[in-house]
Structure prediction request, 233 residues.
Amino acid sequence: MEILVTGGTGTLGRHVVPALRETGAGVTVLSRHGDIACDLLGEVPPIEADVVVHLAGGQKGDDVATRNLLAACRGVRHLVHISVIGADTVPLAWLRTKLACEQAIVDSGIPFTILRAAQFHDLTLTMVRGLAKLPVVPVPGLRLQPVDVRDVAARIVELALGQPAGRVADLAGPTVYEMRQLVRDFLSLTGKRRLTVPVRLPGKAGQAYRDGRNLTLDGDRGARTWEEFLADR
Ligand SMILES: NC(=O)c1ccc[n+]([C@@H]2O[C@H](COP(=O)([O-])OP(=O)(O)OC[C@H]3O[C@@H](n4cnc5c(N)ncnc54)[C@H](OP(=O)(O)O)[C@@H]3O)[C@@H](O)[C@H]2O)c1
Prediction:
């Protein structure tokens, strides 16, 4: 089986690619620095793999990138895509873009599987590390359900080896945390002493987060906790 992985050099892709290779599949990475060096925001060469695992994503333009990728697919029999929990419930521009990616895939006619995942532990760490650089740490009033990227990678591999399944159950971490808890854990791990100040997120997106519309209560849960992830650091 020939599998093309877009974004195979990224946080998620770095776990997915070796796991797919271990199954004996032929795996090619497409990214700006991959085996196929290609910017999905520009011209994409014809893609003739059996399975495409679409993990590439950036700050903006993912909808354009996804449409360019789909237009280049030739005879692909299964496209697996990673999306984000809250794509259709939290009114933020980048989430609308993620929803547009999903819709483009649904409309493409290529048999597909879409997995929405929660925020990875890695990104949560980047976020709290950034906040903790400030002398007074603003802590947004929201909850997160971070998931370990290794759990997401294992699920993506399973889906890529299986049949197209449409949109499958969301995958989040095992625990829901208040943001202040995540910040506190990081401060205590690093021995930093900081004043923290609660911040109310404005607008409709803020309300969506307060309502927990970025969480999943009935989806699948990864095994590895935020505490275990931090302990490995
Ligand atoms: N991080 C999270 O918490 C999270 C949660 C749920 C879903 N997701 C989704 O999962 C996907 C992977 O996330 P990640 O954390 O692994 O991201 P990441 O670490 O930022 O990696 C992004 C990958 O996409 C490639 N890429 C970016 N822009 C590209 C472009 N214009 N053309 C071609 N390749 C491009 C990058 O490779 P090059 O730099 O080599 O081009 C890299 O391999 C994204 O779609 C993201 O939205 C992420």
